[in-house]
């Protein structure tokens, strides 16, 4: 339908951190399908899990028990705060489900007036009408009729305004620990701790969107762990399936008490194929030493990117992010599309974002050598951009 501004590259196959185009050109993929390919391309354990399941059973629906769901739910509840899990197919569905859980919780608690959710501008929670309204990005809402009600938006840096925004109708506070699409803008540990305290004091649920930040991307299994807090509800997707479309909503038993038969559902959610892959992703990412290795690689990459800021100060204003979710905040006269195109010309794939930022999102198992190659290619790309400036 012409809704994507695609680069004119067609990829035929992938190997680890690399994508190979139809003409044979090799690209270092530090976009990871927008933080989806957490373990790179064609990871042998993911391929084996998918092939084995594909030979047995693809789909039965949620009218019956699904063994893979029970396996993955057990792993998620063992590894996280969660006591209840709902499986779906995408980050947007997971965020929509999280919103429904928060509202339903207050409804069954005898507070049906509590249905409003405080959110932050610059967030990206998905492309459904409700998740678009939650984020409040006017550009994405244009032309789609009346905006879904029930959201109170604060500026990203307006933490002093949160308590003043709480009313008797407030049900929850919803945020991304790091706004990925919004420009790799990081909420500090102190800010997250303050939000948790506000929710506890006012009887609100804390809803976290960890679609992009989850499953090891920041060097912890989930980004909120850096702040030492736990949410009441959390949406996950992207890296959770390692490239296979799947997602989930995680919640405490208390937060999910309103989710009874018939209140929500999904035809494809948690199908056997998705669960086979997600289960294997969780196994790999939770292995001893894996996240420590991610943190070491993240330090290596951050040092390299900080060096680029110094070398290319006319293009790069700042370096942002945590773990292997990093961003180059560009000078106002440079567009992210200029950098992503120049990087592609250097056979490096990176991803644009809001707030005039370019994201660098390598697979979690990228090698130190590949990180060095990526920084070098990005340096050459920034040189290209600087030479093209008037």
What features would you describe in this structure?
The chain is α/β, with parallel strands linked by helices and 390 residues long. Helices cover 36% and strands 19% of the residues. It has twelve helices and 17 strands. The protein has a seven-stranded mixed β-sheet with strand order 4-12-11-10-7-5-6, sandwiched between helices. Strands 1-2-3-15 form a four-stranded mixed β-sheet. Strands 13-14-17-16 form a four-stranded antiparallel β-sheet, covered by helices on one side. A hairpin with a 4-residue loop joins β2 and β3. The model has no long low-confidence stretch (mean pLDDT 97).
Secondary structure: elements and pairs:
Elements: E1 11-15, E2 18-21, E3 26-29, H1 32-35, H2 44-54, H3 67-79, E4 84-88, H4 91-108, E5 116-120, H5 129-135, H6 138-141, E6 151-154, H7 162-165, E7 170-175, E8 178-179, E9 185-186, H8 189-202, E10 205-209, E11 233-236, E12 247-251, H9 272-285, H10 290-311, E13 316-322, E14 325-330, H11 336-345, E15 348-349, E16 351-353, E17 357-360, H12 368-388
Parallel strand pairs: 3-15, 5-6, 5-7, 7-10, 10-11
Antiparallel strand pairs: 1-2, 2-3, 4-12, 8-9, 11-12, 13-14, 14-17, 16-17
């Amino acid at each position: 339908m012409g809704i994507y501004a695609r680069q004119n590259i067609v990829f035929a196959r992938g190997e680890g951190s690399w994508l190979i185009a139809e003409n044979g050109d090799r690209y270092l993929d530090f976009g990871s399908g927008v933080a989806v390919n957490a373990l790179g391309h064609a990871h042998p354990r993911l391929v084996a899990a998918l092939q084995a399941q594909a030979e047995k059973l693809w789909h039965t629906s949620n009218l019956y028990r699904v063994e893979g769901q029970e396996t993955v739910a057990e792993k998620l509840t063992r590894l996280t705060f969660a006591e209840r899990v709902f499986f779906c197919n995408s980050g947007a569905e997971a965020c929509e489900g999280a919103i429904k859980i928060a509202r339903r919780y207050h409804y069954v608690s005898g507070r049906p007036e509590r249905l409003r959710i405080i959110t932050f501008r610059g967030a990206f929670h998905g492309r459904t009408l409700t998740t678009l309204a939650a984020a409040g990005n006017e550009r994405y809402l244009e032309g789609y009729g009346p905006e879904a009600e029930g959201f109170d938006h604060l500026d990203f840096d307006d933490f002093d305004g949160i308590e003043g925004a709480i009313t008797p109708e407030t049900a929850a506070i919803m945020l991304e620990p790091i706004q990925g699409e919004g420009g790799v803008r990081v909420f500090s540990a102190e800010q997250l701790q303050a939000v948790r305290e506000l929710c506890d004091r006012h009887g609100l649920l804390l809803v976290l969107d960890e679609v992009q930040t989850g499953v090891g991307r920041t060097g912890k299994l989930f980004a909120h762990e850096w702040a030492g807090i736990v949410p009441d509800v959390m949406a996950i997707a992207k890296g959770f399936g390692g490239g296979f479309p799947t997602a989930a909503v995680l919640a405490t038993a208390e937060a999910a008490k309103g989710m009874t038969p018939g209140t929500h559902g999904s035809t494809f959610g948690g199908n056997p194929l998705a669960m086979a892959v997600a289960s294997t992703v969780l196994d790999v990412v939770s292995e001893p030493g894996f996240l420590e290795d991610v943190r070491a690689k993240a330090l290596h990459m951050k040092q390299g990117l900080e060096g680029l800021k110094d070398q290319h100060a006319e293009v790069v204003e700042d370096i942002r992010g945590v773990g292997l979710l990093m961003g180059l905040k560009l000078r106002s006269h440079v567009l992210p599309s200029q950098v992503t195109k120049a990087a592609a010309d250097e056979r490096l794939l990176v991803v644009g974002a809001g707030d005039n930022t370019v994201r660098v999102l390598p697979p979690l198992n990228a090698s130190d050598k590949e990180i060095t190659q990526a920084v070098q290619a990005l340096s050459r790309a920034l040189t290209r951009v600087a030479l093209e400036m008037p």
